[in-house]
Design brief:
Helix content: 25-40%
Number of helices: 10
Largest sheet: 6 strands, mixed
Structural class: alpha+beta
CATH class of the largest domain: Alpha Beta
Bound molecules: adenosine-5'-diphosphate, magnesium ion
Number of strands: 13
Strand content: 15-25%
Shape: globular
CATH topology of the largest domain: Ribosomal Protein S5, domain 2
Order of helices and strands: EEEEEHEHHHEEEHHHHHEEHEE
Length: about 375
């Protein structure tokens, strides 16, 4: 008998890419795919972790030994990092037996890592009655991933998994962490949003991410603003004129237009014009491909093929250089789009993509 079962979802980002480290806007929604944790308290200061999705048995760690840089490496660093971050923030978390089982694809840019962290934080918050609010839990999970696992990620993934609600996308201002739930009901409009996992991850992606980040910081410094978020869309052309370095101009243009696209998508969704976001998504892809240069042939193939097959819009989602794309389509056109994508990947000699419809789903919660 366990003490309880909790679940936390993966996410896709609808629009707002690479804006998070520019103090900008993002708009993820939760997937129906979740990581489920079955948890029991234990009183001997031991954290026992097991995942049905990883070969090998359970790993036992002593709470007193948890320290960034001292973890064994591998998947247990994510939940162990959460326990460390909670305890380091002064929360009285004791031992636990945790068994995980997930339907979130790992390493596909759909945030299986945040699902794993958030489900752990939520379960321990309930079991040890810590009384933490969800945005605070998300922050501690981010700290676990940054400092314990050593991955320099933003706050979007954990916030999405912790705070999304069914039938909505979550507008998050990454500067002040203000949140707004934006209605995003696909089924009512006869629409489907397909996630297309290309199942590739190009090796240089981490280095390129660092270069983009540094480039954005240089552009902001050259323009005399704290972050590119502070350049208003109306001031874009003047700002580009003031950027002497031709390498920085397209980076700045992507960030400023992308924040603007988030605002356009919000306005359309709030007006119930869900179909009309399609071209904005496609524009976002062109900007990521041509200005920010983080796409790759597989992601471009998804977008081009989907549009040719009659989709309303498509774009890469996540950091780029592989991972997943999203495609907005009429439900009646969905089967055709999927077939064309599979055929295009086969004839290009790529691995078969994994394609599934994503319904905006609930965030993390207790299951039983
Ligand atoms: P993403 O978050 O896009 O799926 P990441 O590289 O950030 O990709 O995180 C994937 C890693 O998270 C996996 O390699 C594994 O270490 C860990 N992980 C995620 N889900 C699970 C799970 N259910 N069981 C064990 N480890 C998991
Ligand atoms: Mg991740």
């Amino acid at each position: 008998m366990s003490d309880g079962v909790w679940a936390a979802p993966g996410r896709v980002n609808l629009i707002g890419e690479h804006t998070d480290y520019n103090d900008g806007f993002v708009m993820p929604f939760a997937l129906p795919h979740t990581t489920v944790a079955t948890v029991s308290r234990r009183n001997d200061g031991v954290l026992r972790l097991h995942s049905a999705d990883v070969a090998g048995g359970a790993v036992e760690l002593r709470l007193d030994d948890l320290e960034p840089g001292r973890g064994p490496g591998g998947w247990t660093d994510y939940p162990a990092g959460v326990v460390w971050a909670l305890r380091d923030a002064g929360h009285a978390v004791g031992g636990a037996d945790i068994n995980y089982e997930s339907t979130v694809p790992t390493g596909a840019g759909l945030s299986s890592s945040a699902a794993l962290e958030v489900v752990t934080a939520l379960a321990l918050n309930d079991l040890y009655e810590l009384g933490l609010q969800r945005p605070r839990m998300a922050r501690l999970c981010q700290r676990a991933e940054n400092e314990y696992v050593g991955a320099p990620t933003g706050i979007m993934d954990q916030t999405a998994s912790a705070c999304c609600t069914e039938g909505h996308a979550l507008h998050l201002d990454t500067r002040d962490l203000a949140q707004r739930q934006i209605p995003f009901d696909l089924a009512a409009r006869g629409l489907e949003l397909l996630v297309v996992d290309t199942r590739v991850k190009h090796a240089h992606s981490d280095g390129e991410y660092g270069k983009r980040r540094a480039g954005c910081e240089s552009a902001a410094a050259a323009l005399g603003v704290p972050a590119l978020r502070d350049i208003p869309y109306e001031g874009l052309l003047a700002a580009l004129d003031r950027l002497a370095d031709p390498e920085l101009r397209p980076l700045a243009r992507h960030i400023v237009t992308e924040n603007h696209r988030v605002e356009r998508v919000i306005a359309l969704l709030e007006a119930g014009e869900v179909r009309a976001i399609g071209p904005v998504l496609t524009e976002g892809h062109a900007s990521l491909r041509d200005d920010f240069r983080v796409s790759c042939p597989e992601l471009d193939l998804v977008v081009d093929t989907a549009l040719e097959a009659g989709a309303l819009g498509a774009r890469m989602t996540g950091g780029g250089f592989g991972g997943s794309a999203i495609v907005l389509t009429d439900t009646s056109q969905s089967a055709t789009v999927r077939t064309c994508l599979s055929e295009a990947f086969a004839s290009a000699g790529h691995k078969a993509p994994r394609i599934f419809p994503a319904t905006p789903s609930r965030g993390a919660g207790r299951v039983s």
